[in-house]
Amino acid sequence: MRKAPQPHTPKVDRKKEDTEFEIGFYEKIIADTPNFIEALAALGDLYTKAGYWQKGLDVDTRLSGLKPDDPVISYNLACSYALLNQTRAAWNALSKAIELGYDDFRHLRSDGDLENLLKDAHVQAFIKQLEKKKN
Asked: Is 105 part of a structural domain of the chain?
């Protein structure tokens, strides 16, 4: 016996739907607790992954004001600037991250968010020089 045809159900992008749900979740937390660092970091990451680069930059800028000596926050700020083609600001934030101790150069070299910045020969030479010092 054959099964009756099933009604067509539209394809739903569950991953995008989940991301939007998570964004809403963290936005509510931030509305109640504006300086909740971990929630801000998660929200900034979600905005960036969802392609909301300006919103990601806004969150990363806010985080850098709350934790100005955190190398990872400065690195993420550099990524946000680079995604928006603000290469000078990206370079400044990346330089600060490195000064503060960021040294995961393998990740840095392969980070698609920094693609615009990493095209610059001066930046590549600088990173190569830092890698030599580290090793």
From this structure: yes
Which burial class, exposed, middle or buried, applies to 102 when counting CB atoms under 10 A from its CB (0-12, 13-18, 19+)? buried
Q: Which residues contact 96 (CB under 8 A, 6 or more apart)?
A: 74
CATH number (domain holding residue 104)? 1.25.40.10
| Beta carbons of 100 and 126 less than 8 angstroms apart | no
Could you list the pLDDT tens digit for every one of the 135 residues in the chain?
A: 444 444 444 554 678 889 999 999 999 999 999 999 999 999 999 999 999 999 999 999 999 999 999 999 999 999 999 999 999 999 999 999 999 999 999 899 899 999 999 999 998 898 888 888 877
Mapped onto helix, strand or coil, the DSSP state of residue 11 is: coil
- State the Cα–Cα distance between residues 90 and 21, nearest whole angstrom: 29
Max CA distance (Å), the chain: 72
Q: Are 78 and 93 in contact (CB under 8 A)?
A: yes
Of 128, 134, 113, 118, the C-alpha closest to 53 is 113
